[in-house]
Amino acid sequence: MQYVVFNQKGGVGKSTITCNLAAISAAQGLRTLVIDLDSQGNSTRYLLGGEQSDSLPNVAEFFEQSLKFTIRDKSAAEYIVSTQWEGLDLMPSSPLLDELHGKLESRHKIYKLRDALKFLAGDYDRIYIDTPPALNFYSRCALIAAQGCLIPFDCDDFSRRALYTLLENVEEIKSDHNADLKVKGIIVNQFQPRANLPQRMVQELIDEGLPVLQPYLSSSVKIRESHEQSLPMIFMEPGHKLSLEYVALHDSLL
């Protein structure tokens, strides 16, 4: 199963959700891959920490290869590195993604990731794709390649307004490029159950028939500690409330 974690709005927790769900998949014995398509590289830093290096093979090199004539193209697997956790691999990000964007778009390389995942699907039980906070070439690549779309939602009015446009964009890509793509659900992030606005906003989404997933992910300072230590919650503090919420969310997707 291949999931794209996508939202055109920044700061909603895409990388955090991507890495924590992937870590749980690996911890449960599933062969798991994260592909970091965001040039900011938050998922890459989260999973590699101090081991991150410009010399690592990365997703920018994977795309750049398609712009050059070579006798033998490298396989997608050659751009993947192992993390410190068994069963959890990563195709790292690179700042070069920004430089390549226009060239890839003009050369119509939008299906390259989809074609690569057809081969990688035999090596991995779960593939999670982190995307940039925009509907650009890389986000479209991911939506065309994936089977399921997960949408982080952080309970504010800006996120809600952007959500409807996002759903329309996903539906358009499904119609034009990827009939197998399904919105698997909206992930409520940084939820504060005692505050009236988040409760009301989430309930309104449910009343509208939108696929809101449960449980909601609580707001917790632990997630910042998790970022700082480059340790997904399941590896840092598996018994924490937020870790258990992530596990329940992960298992609901199965």
State the gist of this model.
It contains 11 helices and 7 strands. The protein is α/β, with parallel strands linked by helices and 254 residues long.
Description:
The protein has 254 residues and is of the alpha/beta class. The chain has one domain (2-253): P-loop containing nucleotide triphosphate hydrolases (Rossmann fold, 3-Layer(aba) Sandwich). Helix content is 44%, strand content 13%. The protein contains 11 helices and 7 strands. The chain has a 7-stranded mixed beta sheet with strand order 3-4-2-5-1-6-7, sandwiched between helices. Strand 3 and strand 4 form a beta hairpin. The radius of gyration is 18 Å and the shape is globular.
Shape: globular
Mean pLDDT score: 93
The class by helix and strand makeup works out as alpha/beta
The CATH topology annotation reads as Rossmann fold
Q: At the first level of CATH, what is the class?
A: Alpha Beta
Main sheet strand line-up:
3-4-2-5-1-6-7
Give the biggest sheet: 7 strands, mixed
| N to C succession of SSEs | EHEHHEEHHEHEHEHHHH
Number of helices: 11
Say which CATH homologous superfamily is assigned: P-loop containing nucleotide triphosphate hydrolases
Instruction: Find the count of extended strands (DSSP E, 2+ residues).
Output: 7
Indicate the CATH architecture. 3-Layer(aba) Sandwich
Distance between the termini: 10 Å
**Radius of gyration, whole Å:** 18 Å
Helix content: 40-55%
The portion of residues forming beta strands comes to: 5-15%
